[in-house]
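FAQ: What does a multi-protein file look like?

Like this. Sequence, then tokens, then the next protein.
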Amino acid sequence: MSYVDTNLEKRLPKRLTVALLNLVGILFLSLGSALAADDDAKAPNPPLNKLTVSYYDFSSGKKGVDVNLRHTFKSSTAWIGGYRESGGFDQARIGYEYDYHRDWLTFVPSAQAATRGFLGASVYSEVGRSLFGIAGMGRTNLHPYWNLGFDPNDYMEFGAGYHDHAANTISVYAIRDNRLHTGQTNTHVFFRRHVRDDWRLTIDVVRERGKGDDGLLLKGWASSMDVDWRRWFVRVARDPHVNYTPDRQVRVATGLRF
């Protein structure tokens, strides 16, 4: 569930803003090197960095923009990002996750901090090989946070899936609020298919059902589609009740791995 208080400060704290600008500068230096590389050459190792720029269009007339930069280490990932909305809600964030993969077990704990006093943590796990079970949970300190994952912030998660030797994946899982008694439940049907060596298609269809901040029951179907080509990717999504608000939202994101 999301919490938005537009009466709180509208400016990002100076230190996080400076850090974000420094990383963006480093990003563009690296981006120049990536673009100079031969597109037809296949890198021996997967790119360690990922830049995502997203645009959000709300039915109420608001607009939102988000920039996120991720870096993958040997067994963990860190990110820094910033969200700005024409309605007055701005927020910077940093996060870190540890990725444990061994035989039949995947275990990914993560932590995130954001301006406006937000703190959150989550854990995700998969148990199995080709057929696998999914379990996870998340907790926050309930401070204002615009959830760009578009699922409840405080939740339990259960599901199951299948992936083959080529990493094609299909899974079904539910993320349900288990703290604020809203009944918010997002049930995902997720499909990912690798096409040849340099194309990948991802489709996520979500059944949303639960009470919004005003107590009214909201339900509908959201969907998103991602297309990855080599280092580049684009995502388009439509959500009839984004973060269980009355707003319909169209989302477009694009980016680069480098």
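And here is the next protein:
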Amino acid sequence: MERREFVASLVAGGCAGMCVDLTLFPLDTIKTRLQSQQGFYKAGGFRGIYAGVPSAAVGSFPNAAAFFVTYECTKSLLGAGGAVAAPHVAPVTHMLAASLGEIVACLIRVPTEVVKQRTQASPSSTTYHMLLATFREEGVRGLYRGFGSTVLREIPFSLVQFPLWEYLKTLWSWRQGHTLYSWQAAVCGAFAGAVAAFVTTPLDVVKTRIMLAKAGSTTASGNIPVVLYDVWKSRGLTGLFAGSIPRMTFISVGGFIFLGAYEKVRRTLL
């Protein structure tokens, strides 16, 4: 990957991430409260809908930038030559690139996500106080609570979203005979995001439960199968798919903005 492409991916990814996270933050708060153990209204209901937004604002640019730089670099490396460059393995290339991108991005995303979600579920606290409380009580380990469950959620999500997005773009471009406009890439992103969001909702519920759990509790230990079973046992299928509608809405609209903005900014810079 050339330096110009690297910078374009960095800036485009960061700008796209900020656009989505700040625009759709209220939907994310509603989803978090629906998935919390204490329930929607006890977690704050519709009060303080922007609680935790500073954490999202700080983390969104570097998080999205890290993902797309890794994604584009990996695609470039895997497509540079040899068997991996064959068209029939393009989905595998996209899956590997997206998976690596998510692992790198989670190093930035998880600490900001922990602070953000805890503030969303306790709207009387500020982001700064929640950060201090988490660090004081649990240290750096507390800020990375749920890292494994977040990666386990994000990788399957990206394994569905990005190959589907790339496939839809290729199909639409082929049918109309020219490269897609940015808004068309955004529509493909919205559809791919909605599908990926729905099928990975149970993993998102587990991630939220682990991040919000009290230190020292069974849930806080991060045992994903145990948490999945507990949710199933207490709330059934409804519990496993709690928050699926706001999550699908958030990610579908977010996919439209995120991937559309990414394509537009990247093309402009290149």
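Q: Is there any per-entry metadata?
A: Some entries carry free-text notes. For the entry above: The chain has one domain: 3-269.
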